[in-house]
Amino acid sequence: MKTMIDLEEALQLVLDRIQPVDTECVGIADGYFRVLAEDVVSQIAMPPFARSPLDGYAYIATDTDPRPLQLKVVAEIPAGTFLDRVIDIGEAVKIFTGAPIPSGANCVVRMEDTEAIGDKVRIFRPVAPGSNIVHKGEEIKGGDVLLRQGFYLTPPAVGLLAAVGLSEIKVYRRPRVGLLSSGSELMDVGQPLNPGKIYNSNSYTLRGMLQQAGCEVLIIPIVNDQIDDTLEALRKVVDADIIITTGGASVGDYDIIRDAFAEYGCEMLFWKLNLKPGTPASVGQKGNQFFFSLSGNPAAAMVTFELLVRPALRKFAGRRGSEEVFPVKMASAFNKGGKQRRFLRARAVFKDGEICADLSPAQGSGILRSMIGSHLLIDVPANHGAVEVGELMMARWITDWET
Ligand SMILES: Nc1nc2c(c(=O)[nH]1)N[C@H]1C(S)=C(S)[C@@H](COP(=O)(O)OP(=O)(O)OC[C@H]3O[C@@H](n4cnc5c(N)ncnc54)[C@H](O)[C@@H]3O)O[C@H]1N2
Ligand code: MOO
């Protein structure tokens, strides 16, 4: 088994073996945060007809209209209706925002620049031909590919599906992820804390991150530092695509997770990443199931989730693209240079006209609070030395984005 490998090598080892999950059809209201399994082509234009963006009057403008211009009002078109008649020169139609432009009209003047006088309208500021018309298909043409296979369906993307009248879509099934917190010191919330124990927070943190990533989460009750108990727990989630454990990952006598994985029949792909925090992570595979062992330290578990598990989830879920990395200017310093590559948690702040990275004051791998309000992971290469204010560092977002 490989050990102490670079993140990129670890990702390659894992991603090369992952196949996307199968697909299913769902109603679009069940499509949020799912991944499209087909290209979506619009059958209709949007808007489906030329429409008015204003409340006002539609008429036939010329380049030589007098000021004011007086026209006869021959009809009214509230939104949701249409006028079954062509309008002529000298005529106007009272029209409301979102209503179809009547045949013949070539402009809309806004209500505020007009005055109604009986069945006439006086237009103080006549507009040029073509003014204030939203053309048919301005946003979407019939036959346009709206969204590609592999697209992560954000709320506006689901809105777009609705806008073109789609009620069902083909998506990848949600990856099923079993979540196991290992540690004899752990207790679940809802009971008084016993001596030497701590509350299990990792299951709650990771559960939410998995839900946001569009996964179905199977929570496995806390498991003691015992191989037999761990094996029994693993057998309960045989239909999970991925199993994530936290704790028991390092070198202590009670760090039994790797042994449990091996005894369960996993081929171990690697143990230990050459980075901090979260060094003792490992990944195993048994058939189509993948097993991620993350550090029990709460912030380390989150960071390695971002670096290692999230890209794997993307591939499982059928998503396109990969996490973006980009340079960001540092708004604060970090003096503890080290031999190992390190990912620092930072808040994205606006400073001197730029978005900068302000480091969380606590960077310990056990400090969960350091993740709250942190938006970025700053990649500090091995042997980089101190990180200085104003220095440009490579960063990635801590969250899920469509790409
Ligand atoms: N002799 C060595 N000791 C350690 C090494 C090493 O290389 N040599 N590595 C250290 C590093 S780095 C890390 S990271 C941790 C990883 O330890 P484990 O993954 O085995 O995690 P645990 O020991 O089980 O837990 C660490 C810490 O986190 C707390 N924890 C565990 N699970 C949860 C949970 N579900 N919710 C909240 N908190 C949790 C646990 O109580 C510990 O305090 O090992 C170092 N040691
Ligand atoms: O690899 Mo550990 O998370 O630094 O303490």
TrEMBL record:
<dbReference type="InterPro" id="IPR038987">
    <property type="entry name" value="MoeA-like"/>
</dbReference>
<dbReference type="GO" id="GO:0061599">
    <property type="term" value="F:molybdopterin molybdotransferase activity"/>
</dbReference>
<dbReference type="Pfam" id="PF03454">
    <property type="entry name" value="MoeA_C"/>
</dbReference>
<keyword id="KW-0808">Transferase</keyword>
<dbReference type="InterPro" id="IPR001453">
    <property type="entry name" value="MoaB/Mog_dom"/>
</dbReference>
<protein>
    <recommendedName>
        <fullName>Molybdopterin molybdenumtransferase</fullName>
        <ecNumber>2.10.1.1</ecNumber>
    </recommendedName>
</protein>
<dbReference type="GO" id="GO:0005829">
    <property type="term" value="C:cytosol"/>
</dbReference>
<dbReference type="Pfam" id="PF03453">
    <property type="entry name" value="MoeA_N"/>
</dbReference>
<comment type="similarity">
    <text>Belongs to the MoeA family.</text>
</comment>
<keyword id="KW-0501">Molybdenum cofactor biosynthesis</keyword>
<keyword id="KW-0460">Magnesium</keyword>
<dbReference type="Pfam" id="PF00994">
    <property type="entry name" value="MoCF_biosynth"/>
</dbReference>
<dbReference type="InterPro" id="IPR036135">
    <property type="entry name" value="MoeA_linker/N_sf"/>
</dbReference>
<dbReference type="GO" id="GO:0046872">
    <property type="term" value="F:metal ion binding"/>
</dbReference>
<comment type="function">
    <text>Catalyzes the insertion of molybdate into adenylated molybdopterin with the concomitant release of AMP.</text>
</comment>
<comment type="pathway">
    <text>Cofactor biosynthesis; molybdopterin biosynthesis.</text>
</comment>
<keyword id="KW-0479">Metal-binding</keyword>
<dbReference type="InterPro" id="IPR005110">
    <property type="entry name" value="MoeA_linker/N"/>
</dbReference>
<dbReference type="InterPro" id="IPR005111">
    <property type="entry name" value="MoeA_C_domain_IV"/>
</dbReference>
<dbReference type="InterPro" id="IPR036688">
    <property type="entry name" value="MoeA_C_domain_IV_sf"/>
</dbReference>
<feature type="domain" description="MoaB/Mog">
    <location>
        <begin position="178"/>
        <end position="315"/>
    </location>
</feature>
<keyword id="KW-0500">Molybdenum</keyword>
<dbReference type="InterPro" id="IPR036425">
    <property type="entry name" value="MoaB/Mog-like_dom_sf"/>
</dbReference>
<dbReference type="GO" id="GO:0006777">
    <property type="term" value="P:Mo-molybdopterin cofactor biosynthetic process"/>
</dbReference>
